[in-house]
Every structure is written in C-alpha cells, then in structure tokens.
Amino acid sequence: MMLSLATLVFAVLPQEPVSAPVVYKAAKVYTADEAGMIDRGVIVVQDGKILWAGREKDVEIEDGIEVVDLGNVWLVPGMIEPHNHVAGSLSDLNDNVYLTNPEFRTHDLLEPRNAMLQDAVAGGVTTALLIPGSGSNMGGFGMVVKTSSDTIEDMVVRSPGSLKVAQAGNPERYSFGVGRAMMNWNTRNTLTEGLDWAAAYREGKVPFDPRYEGFIGLENHTVPVSVHTQMYQVVMQTLVMQVQELGLKSFVDHGTFDGFRNAPLAAELGVPVMNGPRQFYFDRANSRIVGCAAGWDSVDGLILGYNTDAPVIPQEELPLQAALGVRYGAGDAEAALKGLTANAAIALLIEDVSGRLVPGLDADFVAWTGDPVDPRNSVLAAWVRGKKVYDVEEDGQRF
Amino acid sequence: MLAAVLLAALPAQEPAGIALDVAVALTMEERQVVHNARILVRDGRIEQVGRRAEVALPDGYTLYDFHDSYAWPGAVDLHSHVHSGGFGDTNDMVHPDNPELRVLDTIVPGNGDFRDALASGVTLVNSIPGSGTNISGAGALVRMIPTDVVDEAVMRSPGSVKVAQGYNPERDGGDLGESRMGMWWMLRWFLARGAEAAEGDLYDHPEIAHVGGIFQQRYPFLVHTAGGRDVYGTVRMFALEAGVPVIVSHGSFSGYVVGEAVARVGTPLNVGPRNFDFNFNAMARIQGLVEGYESTGNTDISVQTDSPVIPQEDYLLQAAMAERLGASTWTALEAINVKPARQILVEDQVGRLVPGLQADIVISAGQPLDPRHPVQLVLIEGAVVYDIRDGQRF
Fold first, then answer.
1. CATH class for the region spanning B75-343
2. How far is A44 from chain B (nearest CA, A)?
3. Which of A242, A245, A210, A220 is nearest to A105 (CA)?
4. Partner B contacted by A390 (CB < 8 A)
5. CATH 2.30.40.10 in chain B, residue ranges
6. Which of B267, B271, B278 is closest to B243 using CA atoms?
7. CATH 3.20.20.140 domain extents, chain B
8. For A15-60, how does the pLDDT look when each residue is reduced to its tens digit (9 = 90+)?
9. What distance in Å separates residue B382's CA from the closest CA in chain A?
C-alpha cells in the first residue's frame, strides 16, 4: 500500500504539528522492531517524533517536503545505556548512610553536555539511566536521560527512572558483620514498607512522605528496579524477592559470574537482563571461560541487553560489550543490536519513548558507517528528538 | 605376538600433513585473497595454498574442515612485556643505559597471558624490556606455544634491542640524562661502541654485543618514542646517522605531524597502544594515529599492545580501532602480520600464508578484525596448539 505523508501526520501526532516533516533516506534502516532491517529505507520525522519508517518505495513523498539522503549508511535507533554513572559528577555516587537509602535521587546531580556525555553521543548512545552506586543496598532513585541536551529539563525523560538496588556483592558492611541474610531481610523490609506506604497514599490514607515518594512509581509499575545483582544465589534472590514475592518491575543489571544459571526463571518471569560490563565467567570447576550473555541467551524468550556501568567501561564502548557477547556465543549480530536498543527500552519501561524506529516514538536515531556492533564502524551523525546533535563533518570525529 | 614384534621394529611413522579447508584465505601476500581455499601443511611449513578445486587432498593428511571460516597468518605483536606472565621483569634501572641485559632469562613460556594471546590469534610476540632507561636490553621473539621449555618457545634472541628515546627514561635526579641532550648523547656514544664491536668478534665485547649485532643487520632497534620531535629524532639518530635497522615504536601523541618526513626515509612504524591523539593537535579533535601516518604516505605500519598496557589478547582490536579512526582496511589488516614480521626481520619465516613459510595459521569464524568472531583453530609450526572445541579461552 502506498502511504501519503499528509495522512500520516494525523494518524501519529496527537496535535496539530508545529514543524514541517523531514524525510531521511538510508541504504539500511534498522527498526529494532518487527520490520527488522529495511534495505533502501526511509524514516519520516516531525515535531521530534517518528511519523513513519519503512521502504522508500512504499511512501509517496509530496513535492516541497525536505528530503535528506544520507546515502550508504546504516540508520539505527539511538542506543540506550541501562547502567550509567557519568551523567552527573563522578564523585556523587554513594551516600552510605543506612543499608537502604530510598530517599536519595540522582536528579540533583546532572551535568548537561559533560565530556563523557559528549563521548556517549559520538558513540551513538542517546539515552542513559543515571543511577547511584552500589555502596548500599538501596542507593536511591535514578533517572532516564537523553545524553545530548543542553538543559536538565530537556535531558530528563523520566525521573525517577529506577530504584537502584544492590542485592549483594559491594554493599556488604564487612566491619559490622552485615552479610547477605541481614541485607536481604532489610532490603525486603524497606521495599515492603515503601510499597505499603505508596498503596495507602494512593488511597489517601496516609500523608505525603518524601522518604518513600519514589515508591509511587514502583507501586503502579511505571518505574522499574535496576538491580546490581550477580552470581547464582544473589540473582535468584532478586528474582524471587522482588519479582515473585513483591511483584516489582525489576531488571537484572550485571547478571555476571554464574548468574545466568537463573535464565529459565528470568525468562519465565519476563525479567530483562542487562548483562555486563564483564562478559565472561571463569568456570573454575571446569577450567574454562563461559560467556555470561551466552548463558542468559540459552533460554528462549529472555530479554537480553548490555551495560557498561560507565565509567567502569566508557559509555561509548557499549556496543563492544555486545560484540564480546556475540564472540562468546550470545545470538547473532541483529540480536546484539536489538539488545542495545529495543530490549534496553523494555528494561527501562521506556518502550513507548525510544529504542525503536516506529511511529510515535522519539526520533532518536544515528547514522553509522555500518553495523554499530562491529567497532570498525563509527558514527557519522546523531539525532535526538529529531534534532541533529552530532555531525562528524562539523564537529570532528570524537570516537 | 609376532605382529607386535614387527610393529615395534618398524621405524616411527612420519607424521603426515594437515589440510585446512576454509571459505577465505587472507594470504597477506600482495593482498591476495583465495576463496574456497585449501591450505596444505607439512613438516611445520606451508606446503600449498590454493582453491580447493585445484588442490587435491594428499593421502594420509588430516583434514580440518572450516569451510565457513577465514584463515590468516598468525598475528605478530612487536611490543610486549608479559614474558613472565603479567607485570614485572621489565626494568633493571642500574645505569642510564643497560645494553647488556636481556629478557631471555625472565621468560615464562606458555604463561597465562601467552595462552590468552594464542586464543586471540597471536602466535609470535617480541618480548622486550621496559622504558625505564634509555637502553634497557635485548628482547626475544617468543612463540605462543604451550610449552614449559624456554628454548622451544624462543624463535630468536635477541629479537630487538629496546631503546627509550624520551617520556619515561628521564633521570629526574638532576644527573646526566635529565634532558634529551644528555640522554641522546649517551645513546650516540653507545651506538659508536656498538659499531666498533661489530667489526670484530662480539664475544669479545659482552657488554655491548647486543648493540653490535644490530650493526651486523641481524635484528633491529625497537625505539620507544613519541611526539613529532622525538619520532623524527629517532629516525635521524638511528636510520640516517647510524644506518642501522630501527623500528619507531609508539609514535603516539602528535608523532604523525612528521609523517611526511618519516615516509621519505621509509622507517618502519609500530603504532600504539594509544590509537588516537586528542590533546596534542591543539584542535581538541580525535586524530587516528595510523590514519595520520598512512595519509602522509607511510606504508610500513604495524600496531602493538605494549601488553600489559593493553591485554595481549586485545592485539587485533588495536587494528580494528585504527580502521574505525580512518585507516584503510588493508593497512589495518597488514598491521598485525606481514608488516610487523618484515619490521622485525622475520618476513621469510612468518607473517604470510605462502609456501615455505612457517605454518603459523589462524582460523576464525569471520574477518580477523571483527571481534564478534572467535578464533577457532591455531597452528604454530604446523602443530595444532589451540582448538576452540576444547574450550573457548577468548
């Protein structure tokens, strides 16, 4: 069927458009959606949203509409970094006051256009989840941001973006003898108290409490829990405590060591896994390495993505994490790219905002010299909400 | 009983050859690529490389069928310090110049770092001392074979003599060698001593014998040098004034600004492990180093890890990043095999897939510079020394 742009505008945009549509043509358009990879594709952008994506021959472009022919490039969704500490100041990571500190938030830390964010954009990473560190079991509430904007207001996609929980493997207070049993009890206790408050607050039974404010989103399932969790028993605890018992929208961050042994349960519960930044596990019993992502990927239907834990791994090297995942046996090149885009959006509960090139989503897209997961390729230009934010010709190659 | 006696009396059976069937053989000989290739290996050497349809499988050869894979020459890293397995055994900073020292005495063959390297497709490294002094001693070319015997692993000692021209060896205590004037005077003095020694029997001059061997053209200097001033200083001192084989190693910071002058001399460049310049070009722009040298007319370029600065097994990623930052595909591919082999003066032994050369061959699931594809099989001198089917190591 031949589509006309005029009819598209009314189908997608909620209100009368304020700007003219722009058509971008590319040799390959990767939608990260059912259409997958489109040869000789176009995307149509208006008012910062994607109006349409598909084959060039399926759309009728009326005279007078601006057409940008990007030529022999790959046009892919901006990548999403689901575990990031560089959107603010690197020293503001942890306030380890209590074992659980749900009252803290990263909203106060953002520093627009800092050098590391500019590297992220030059590496094709247009969205990031900025979260507190793993010094305590509950570091506070993080936020989902665009990596390119000039103001905090423009950066914020959602705040709170997630509750950061560190299940174990960092938050231990060794000098006081706090181990996993105490931590698990206390984390469950704080989660239960917060969720109970949020349910009561929703029904108007209790007054506002800033300590638990972020739990409103957790309780109504609009905000996920991003969980620093790894190793078999610890990931098991994340899945059982947070998802099975408390019904939270949690996702597994890291998932390293032998955490992948929980893959069947994670897939059954629909819990996304954002693996990394370590991509292999040394299996001492058998004296061999095992790919962590490959372990997770061994179960059908598991939603797999990757993280850098930036600055642990530089945020612009996010696709290299996926490349190593593939090297160690996790899926194919397309699965890797989907993990960096659409699957990360599922984990962050921003599927309706970005991560795919489909109508109605933010026009966050990047022109690459080839497959982003192959590091020999680089970014030529990046757009966020339809606005060009990086151009290698004008800005010089930054990564 | 009789049968057993007969068998025992027969001479040990000659080990037969190996045949490798692959989709693509990157010979690295004048950029020739053979599709649907068969490689025959016998007695540790490459016997034949050709199209499968034109190369018959000889009787008794063991066939390794990787018909969807790439074959390429084992990678050669000229700048590595992990000979004893990780950090350590790199510097004895006794004098400002210590040409009498050698890494041969410190090598732990088959160490963990070397095994990782093998699993990444690296088959030969030039193990060298550090840059703590202006001359830190003689390195050795070490094969990545899993052996416990040093002499089985070492292909040549010295592999090179390590010089550090600046940016590390400075003597900050205020004595001779605090600036380049003092450091470079001492280097010229040792060059003169080496030239004298090369005229006679090197065994008469053990303290300078390693340098004397260079004047006999047996192996090169490998010089830690960076920035435009020092890179050209290296070319002037070693190539133009002393006339000895020399490799510019690192060549980082803004070394590429003298690219055209280096290209006129044709001095080999061993670039890395920092693959770009950001701070030294006064433009706050990323400049790919290999691209900087290539675009100014240099053709003799290898890359390096300076391992453990970059893990030994990430050697090929150095070439991939060079390509990302603007180097051409072939320049990046040649930078890990044929070029380093030529620079270290072993091009008649390794670095290409051509008959007669040592059978150091790697098979991987895809193009070698694409890190998504693991290495599947490695042969060194015709023996299978890594097989992913026994467990993936990298």
1. alpha beta
2. 29
3. A210
4. no
5. 11-73+355-390
6. B267
7. 75-343
8. 788 999 999 999 999 999 999 999 999 999 999 999 999 999 999 9
9. 25
